[in-house]
Amino acid sequence: MLQRDMTDLTTQSETKRAPTSADVARLAGVSQTTVSQVLNGKAGVARIASETRDKVLEAARQLGYTPNHAARSLRERRTKLIALILPTIDNPYFSDVVNAAQEAAREAGYAVAVIPIRAGEEFRVSTFLQGAACDGIIVAGHDNCSSPELQILRARGLAVAVLQERSPDPAISSVSVDLAEGGYLATHHLAGLGHRRIGHITERLRPAADGRSRIDGYRRALAEAGLFFDPALVVVTENSMAGGAAGLDRLLEADGEPATAAFVYNDQLAVGVLARLRERGQRVPEDFAVVGFDGLAIGAFTAPPLTTVDSPRGALGRLAAETLIRAIETGADVGETHRLPVRLEVRGSCGARERPAP
Amino acid sequence: MLQRDMTDLTTQSETKRAPTSADVARLAGVSQTTVSQVLNGKAGVARIASETRDKVLEAARQLGYTPNHAARSLRERRTKLIALILPTIDNPYFSDVVNAAQEAAREAGYAVAVIPIRAGEEFRVSTFLQGAACDGIIVAGHDNCSSPELQILRARGLAVAVLQERSPDPAISSVSVDLAEGGYLATHHLAGLGHRRIGHITERLRPAADGRSRIDGYRRALAEAGLFFDPALVVVTENSMAGGAAGLDRLLEADGEPATAAFVYNDQLAVGVLARLRERGQRVPEDFAVVGFDGLAIGAFTAPPLTTVDSPRGALGRLAAETLIRAIETGADVGETHRLPVRLEVRGSCGARERPAP
């Protein structure tokens, strides 16, 4: 037994010699200076062509190379701090996620710093994110998650987990809620109540290659109910209460037979939709039915109370923190994918309060 | 002229020799080891009696002593990051403050990290706040601002500014909005509309030695209108929408002639108040008038839209960041006090839409 184990160890150490920056340079076809500039965060990195940078990152990934200094820093100078990069903190959705992430982190002895980085802004937070000041980061927001800086941080040995987005790298864990299922539940419910013209008021229409967006579920439920998907009933608007009000106006002014119901991107937009329906003298749910998404506290206090897809915000934040901390503490590339289930919370705005959900 | 200047310089350098840790130890009557433990953040600090710690901090403050290592670290290793310690990010009030602080910081080349620390939690965020990972901190929340850790960070040479609280130290700048004036404007307005029994639904009743809380303005407006201050009409509740609903119930069940109006601590509570009034079949503003505080976006979308004291959240966040960055970059103890004015935003919930505000 011992003999056998030792042989394995020898074999392993021979085949698995730790890769060096020279190996990375050779595989990428660049100089060691360039490798160091990309992976050590030296000043020159901004001037390196993006193809070169990508070649270095890909080579480092293939070889499993982590710069020594980053590894040493992580081992010796644990900051016990994790950073949570969010596209915005304007939506209370994120405060629920942050609170839960923070609670899970605290249980494991970590603190959480929230860094809001809006779409289009530079993902560059001084030395903070360069591995010196935190042990790992949780990233949300499409632009943040697809940023080359994220890959650079990962390549430098920082633990990373992605929230509610596709992971840009199989080694990076991803934790999300099932948006498509939510879109399906909301639309299926409205179709079951007899609505034939169901609109979708949304914040964005990004091509979701994985078919896992709200609108994918919306289309699936329409098809199942034998309803025609009419692009005129899909309205893209700004992600705010005012955006919801403007979106409702546009939906009601769309060509063709008017919509009698809408599945709305999130509860914040839905608050604006309800207010504008009131201003237009339309009764909810008698004249128009509304279903939101997120399950925010405000939904219980609107007039009428809002039917919504309850997203497990707390579980999402907790799982993201736990997954990240596991990656920090084991030093392993976990690459887990978690997708949490959602459920429909039926209140007054859909008109089904009297009858059970279909 | 030159002669004169040189004399002054000589005098200054003689009288103003940089204080050493030995001077601090002498003045505080403790050992240099103790001074070092308190001011350099060594592990032992938690075991030092709080009186001893206070003596060291007071001596360091009196002498203007800053540990060399902290000063050097600040000069040489600027992180270009500022931390914003908030008691919660649940209230959209804070996201408006954060967005503006972040914008001002970005203009000056700084990034912002938000660290939520709830009341009762430990103000100890690993090495992050020990002067190594950020250049300065903006602190909000009573417990955070009165924390001894804040004084320790300050004494270690970190720039500090306090948001919406009394500064615990004359050298620490404070930036706030005029809460008492807001309470006065709201209550004065309701009294001007003929209300004689005006309640106050609030989140807390902390003795405000400086007379600058919302309730001080509420009492001043009542007195001015010749109205009796009735403690039975002041209801303390949880700081949430559900708390607002519960507070309204308690206000309406209070002894004596019932209230016909309420000045509510913030818009979040007021959303709950409006929803509960609707549930109780009371018309707003005909049966009951409501004025909130903060000026959040939601107030334009409630039924009816909410009259509120508009707090300059953006200006507050911006000024806090600018004040802190000035302290970071000049290295000077600024100790500025800013108190920003508020204004009443009249909408439908107070019943004054038809008539001009008094």
Automatic annotation (TrEMBL), chains A, B:
* Keyword presence, Transcription regulation: yes
From the UniProt entry, list the residue stretches annotated as the region Disordered. Answer: 1-22
| Domain HTH lacI-type as annotated: residue spans | 19-76
Keyword Cytoplasm among UniProt keywords: no
Q: Which Pfam families match?
A: LacI, Peripla_BP_3
Give the keywords, sorted: DNA-binding, Transcription, Transcription regulation
Q: Name one GO molecular function term.
A: transcription cis-regulatory region binding
Instruction: From the UniProt record, list the coiled-coil ranges.
Output: none
Alphabetical list of Gene3D superfamilies matching this protein = 3.40.50.2300, lambda repressor-like DNA-binding domains
InterPro entries, sorted: HTH_LacI, LacI/GalR-like_sensor, Lambda_DNA-bd_dom_sf, Peripla_BP_I
- Give the protein's recorded name: Transcriptional regulator, LacI family
Q: Which organism is it from?
A: Aureimonas jatrophae
